[in-house]
């Protein structure tokens, strides 16, 4: 009996305030702020678990890659924690084309096959390496990089990020997958008009 | 010819200052600061690669687990990037006993077998789940947690952290693996003297 | 007359926008975000004052201590300011048992009596000291620590924290004050079953 | 046809979640948080453009200066970006009197005329310089500073800040433009009563 | 025997790297960085203790106040922790004149007597209150404020700050305690020449 | 006489510690840390002034643009302040080709002529606008963008950044101005081999 009373006393400052903020699972239905989503009121262990990496259906795309993201919009538990992940699957010959993440550095752990990855620094130096299963590569924030299958079998990797919302800008889509006018595109890249036209057709761009 | 001149002009503000800070690979021989180690002057692609996860020699310890860290002291490329990783191997019956990370949240990706993981929040709620290959669990910063092999075969996971230097405080070692006096320990935990004596013997504590 | 016109002109960009954010007193009725609570619309000086430390009723608990927190949930003015406080009262023989704060470093100022305080670092080193009135001890973020009355009279201290929401995980409550199964608890701590049973009884745990 | 399918696949994780947070244009109608305003749901290029600097009507005030701010309340696009700007116009003889910004360092670029600017550091050292068109001065966060027209013609400058909400505390208004009692004011500044009375009259203060 | 081997294994990643950064006690002999001082190589419990508050010799100054700071330069343990403290002693009639802290919010805990404290926000609103022993006042970062003894006996308070290096700009010293020319001072404050001359004499200013 | 004594007393905690950190002008000769350069020991007002914008010699390059940066390596005063600037000059027909800044958002203030600027968000939306003198555009961190002269006369702008070290990755130089192999380049961009060869010749690339 005394123990229960004791317990209530000891806990009093947390039980009267349910909202001690050990974590802030995103309430995706509310408006974001610069620090992330408002917190969901009530959570269970299932909020902290993400299971889509083992879905099995990693049907790859035109570039023969598949990305399964566990960013804040897919995995609300990472909201505010400065951390997220994604699964990369590369078919034979597959590649994630040149891209960058405005909001995070990336740490890639190869879990199957062999992957060649490269990034380019602000002074235009190329850093490139072929990695085997179990090796890690770090790709600093905001720099162009690419990853391709360097082997004769499927390859895959876990990608982790220093933000719950890294953002991804795929170069070909940013240039050729929208209505950026060919004139502006040619002027800002020096690409030939024929090249622009060809890639706009592939990536669905207009203008 | 004009192109080379052009190139030098265009690059001029970066070539005269070699130290554009896209990254800051740690110079482990220098003193740390609150933001991390000073930066290594010259880097190559090999600075960004970590290969110890696939060493094969994951001989486990008393608790039948093995941790291979890729924190800043093992993998200097993560210095200042707010991100690191570790490999967890669990033999059958293995467990990482109760511990916490003062400096990072953790994102665990199971890559082999089945792992039961649990954490306890500040209001003493228990969050616990058994995960299979491909599943992710998030463990918020600074809270006590544990992970054990829930299957009949070896299990392993990649652990990633929201800091290059997460810190790890293993409860049994913090309590029983040093010279914290038995009197202070008993007073601050209410453990029985016999229990303290027994565990100090196991974990090498004195006092 | 000209002065009033002048005044309005000079002030124009702040008077048209009432919400200049010198501070952000928490609106506790709104959902938290990772950066804290939304701001209360209208504030007075009383929002910035907290008076519960001098309530006089510091009836202590089982461990003969009393904590009066002035964290964001009790003192909304600290929202977003990265700072909070608490009052610690220790009866003769009193102790705050082993605990940690996931979200803040602590600076303790002894204001009455003598207090022995200790913390354990990630490499399991014990740092311990007995402090008198007027002395300060710093306890780094996320590490296990404890404080007990080292004198023959009441002791008290002001605790300040580097976060408006430090969180507190009391070891005995985290282990024995919830439904964490005895099997998991024993496995993850190596405590004896009898010890677990005894402490679960004291701290109200089940399972 | 295959291209469109490809495109949808490639884009799937962003199209299903419209709220990828490259930016967070402020929804000024919502409550602020410590990290800024919640984000506006839908934006266009016009949200990113601010045009009031070229309004022409820089009618100056009593001190013969005019400030046109582009802080978060005037230019919601800077919300969460840690950056804002203002235009300073100084008539002949004009001055921004002694003031400070609690939340930002300032970088002043002179674009017309000659401006003398000074700041005072915490150890009471005076840093002062007269700048011409094209010169930059940095004014560190939270320190008292002033800027005046040092030439025989109008002068102007662009002021940029390391926060979207720098805050401005103009010394004369803070002291003499409110109901701070003369007794308290005299005690806390050692100004003479007559001086206080005179300046309260100018700046509209009472008390 | 097996236990010692076990222990070494379990500890291996921390013992080989002594520099796990739970804290970073300042090495005051090294150059500061924007994040603070480099870390001292070897520390003991005494590094975490500060004892000057109980020195007894709080001989007050011209304004009848005494400040005993425990900022990073006096108390190196707070380096990088975002937290510091100071002791304020006020004789009867004593006052800390108008001042601001560029780098921290302040939380004042009155421990003796009665203290009137006030601060002025960016929109020139005055917030003022007389506090008794045990009451707390929060003073937001970078705003002008003052504290004076409101009683008939000595008063004192503990001041804590959200930075290890808050900085203090005392208005009278910033204006009148240096070589800021009277011409510039008068122009930027509208103070009368006689007033400036008088206060420069008191505070040791020239020019 | 009493005043001098007073002054010394009042100043005592700052004069004994010269290193109060109101600012941290970079010591460019020391190694950087993740938070920036160590601080220069002794500074004058000239450290806070940058004068290269008005050099007059804005000889533009191949793209008919000139950038004069005032980043930390050119203007050490911005070290640690989270703020920097650059001057952009565009000849008739000039353009800054497609580029991004990994470390900062950009705020562009047009000061002469007309400039068309565009950026592309992570969901591949194009944001584009032609700005006149006095207009501001915000370009969020890490996204591809470009700026060109939209008028018949020279144009110029002040660019300010939310970091002292924004970094710049110019797309054409990152792709064609180094030894990234044509095979890898073609694979990661889908550009035609002839296009790659042509642009490698222009930008000085090999491989």
Automatic annotation (TrEMBL), chains A, B, C, D, E, F:
<keyword id="KW-1015">Disulfide bond</keyword>
<dbReference type="GO" id="GO:0031012">
    <property type="term" value="C:extracellular matrix"/>
</dbReference>
<dbReference type="GO" id="GO:0048046">
    <property type="term" value="C:apoplast"/>
</dbReference>
<dbReference type="Pfam" id="PF00190">
    <property type="entry name" value="Cupin_1"/>
</dbReference>
<keyword id="KW-0675">Receptor</keyword>
<feature type="binding site">
    <location>
        <position position="101"/>
    </location>
    <ligand>
        <name>Mn(2+)</name>
    </ligand>
</feature>
<feature type="binding site">
    <location>
        <position position="106"/>
    </location>
    <ligand>
        <name>Mn(2+)</name>
    </ligand>
</feature>
<feature type="binding site">
    <location>
        <position position="106"/>
    </location>
    <ligand>
        <name>oxalate</name>
    </ligand>
</feature>
<dbReference type="InterPro" id="IPR006045">
    <property type="entry name" value="Cupin_1"/>
</dbReference>
<feature type="binding site">
    <location>
        <position position="99"/>
    </location>
    <ligand>
        <name>Mn(2+)</name>
    </ligand>
</feature>
<feature type="signal peptide">
    <location>
        <begin position="1"/>
        <end position="18"/>
    </location>
</feature>
<feature type="binding site">
    <location>
        <position position="145"/>
    </location>
    <ligand>
        <name>Mn(2+)</name>
    </ligand>
</feature>
<keyword id="KW-0325">Glycoprotein</keyword>
<dbReference type="GO" id="GO:0030145">
    <property type="term" value="F:manganese ion binding"/>
</dbReference>
<dbReference type="InterPro" id="IPR001929">
    <property type="entry name" value="Germin"/>
</dbReference>
<dbReference type="InterPro" id="IPR014710">
    <property type="entry name" value="RmlC-like_jellyroll"/>
</dbReference>
<feature type="binding site">
    <location>
        <position position="101"/>
    </location>
    <ligand>
        <name>oxalate</name>
    </ligand>
</feature>
<keyword id="KW-0964">Secreted</keyword>
<protein>
    <recommendedName>
        <fullName>Germin-like protein</fullName>
    </recommendedName>
</protein>
<keyword id="KW-0052">Apoplast</keyword>
<keyword id="KW-0732">Signal</keyword>
<comment type="similarity">
    <text>Belongs to the germin family.</text>
</comment>
<keyword id="KW-0464">Manganese</keyword>
<feature type="disulfide bond">
    <location>
        <begin position="24"/>
        <end position="39"/>
    </location>
</feature>
<dbReference type="InterPro" id="IPR011051">
    <property type="entry name" value="RmlC_Cupin_sf"/>
</dbReference>
<feature type="domain" description="Cupin type-1">
    <location>
        <begin position="51"/>
        <end position="197"/>
    </location>
</feature>
<keyword id="KW-0479">Metal-binding</keyword>
